[in-house]
Structures are given as C-alpha cells and as structure tokens.
Amino acid sequence: MLKENFNDLMSFLVIAKERSFTKAAAKLGVSQSALSHSIRALEERLELRLLTRTTRSVAPTEVGERLVNSLGPCFVEIETELEALRDMRDRPAGNIRLTAGEHAVDSILWPVLKPFLAAYPDINVEIVVDNTLTDIVTGRFDAGIRLGEQVAKDMVAVRIGPEMSMAVVGAPAYFTQYGVPGAPQELQHHRCINMRLPTMGGIYAWEFAKAECELKVRVDGQLTFNSLRQRVDAAVAGFGLAFLPEDAVAKEIANGSLVRVLKDWCDPFAGYYLYYPSRRQHTTAFALLVDALRFRR
Q1: Nearest to residue 266, comparing CAs of 204, 202, 217, 193?
Q2: Is 0.85 surpassed by the pTM of this model?
Q3: Strand 155-159 to strand 123-129: parallel, antiparallel, or no bridges (unpaired)?
Q4: Where are the alpha helices (DSSP H) in 31-61?
Q5: Which of 43, 168, 191, 273 is at 20 to 30 A from 152, Cα to Cα?
Q6: Given this structure, which CATH class describes domain 2-72?
Q7: How does pLDDT run across 6-45, given as a tens digit for each residue?
Q8: CA separation for the pair 194, 205 (Å, rounded)
Q9: Domain 166-265, CATH 3.40.50.300 — does that match?
C-alpha cells in the first residue's frame, strides 16, 4: 500500500504542477490513461477529490492544494538527497535552479558561470531571469539573487558582489537643450525615463542619499520601461535622463555617449547576495557554485 500511495502521490504532484495530464504524462514517461487511472485510484483510496478537471485545464481542489503544500517540500527533500548521492561520483553533478534579476545575471552571475560550467561539465544550471521578488521556496528554486536589502531575514545570505551605486545619466545633446540639474528636486522639471516596478506595478521613485539626507523623487517623461537595457539605449538616444546602476553605464560614460550628473547624491549601498532557505540541505554542486560566486575583496 505504501509503495502504491507513493507512486500515485508523485503523479498527483506532477499533474498539479503542470496543470495538464498530457504534460505530466510526458514528464513521467507514462500514458495519459495510466495516469488518469492512478489518480482515480488515489482519490478512491482517500475518498477525496484532489483535482478539478475541465476540457481545458486541470487544477487542484482545496484539499488537493493542501496536499501539494504539505507533501511538495517532502518530495523536494527526497530529490535533493538523491542529487547528493550522485555527487559521490568522481565528478560533481546535479541540477541547480536560480532566479535573479536582469542586472544581477549580466553583471555577477553569468561572468562567474562561464568558467564554472566549463570546469564542471556534469553540473546543469537553470537561470530564470525575473525582476520580481520571487518566492524561491514555492517556485522550487535552489537559490535567488537579490540586493542585500531585499533578502528576507530568515534566509541564508551570501554576499556575491561589491557595493553598488546608482547614476543619473543623460546624453550630451539632452543637457545642451534642457540644462543640467543641480539637485535631485530639479529632476521634476526634466524629461526622465521611468522604470515600472515589477512587484507592485507602480513607477519607481528615484532614491538619493547624501550624508544623513535621504529623499525620493518622482519623475515624469515620455518613456517607461521594466527592463534595464532599453533604459540605457533610450538615454543614449536623448529621450531623457535615466537612473541606472553605475556599472551598467560605465562604458557609455567612458566613451562620452552619456554624461553623469548628481554623483554626490548617489551614495553606495549593499550589492547583490545569493540567498536560500536555511533548512534546506544542498548538494556538493550547489556548495561549489556558492563558493565560486562568493565575493572576495
């Protein structure tokens, strides 16, 4: 009975995740009819309905959702332990899932991963580029990368980058036409390139700090993006001022296509951290990646 329940529960969790019998059957390597029979048998033994089926979709019932939340982490632990056993081979191996924002991937993660993956060909890494504050537990990620101030207190946090600074930049032609702001408050009278926050959907207020003074300025302009690269390009094209990570526009500042202003109002702040749940056991492959990413002065 235990073995039968285990197999059927595993099938149920895959269906609940994929929201499709077709996709779940392909992932499990079984027929749809066999999968349907397995779920029916499980529901009959439990005398509970676990899935709501329509012609277009499959979704867990309230009871099914409770089962997903209670059993899902247990199966993750089992998978993690099996991955750890694989690491007992001569070469570290396994799968690692990470979520990180666009800038963190470009500036920190990818430059480290290129030599890391070449050194460990049996380690597979999946990167989900997502600027939202993803829940890495429910998303079944091994770890996430965010700014230090955004990491929850109950997570293990490993510093992987230096302190950062933001930069207000614009094209030389823009300053010729509209002048140079002397203080952050004057940005309200300039054309600015806005960023829409991925979490709340609102427009990001530019944050400044100088000595003990901190302030936020809401700016207006013709363009709003939710990505970094387009804001850089729009600033170079003269559509307005942009507020961007300093390292993301270092090349443009060096070649003169962008000019930085209000530098004395952009104090450095905590950079990127890799974070993960303290209760989760990780594989040797994961430990190696953490060590490779760890910031060393």
Answers
A1: 217
A2: no
A3: unpaired
A4: 32-46
A5: 168
A6: mainly alpha
A7: 788 888 888 888 888 888 888 888 888 888 888 888 888 8
A8: 9
A9: no
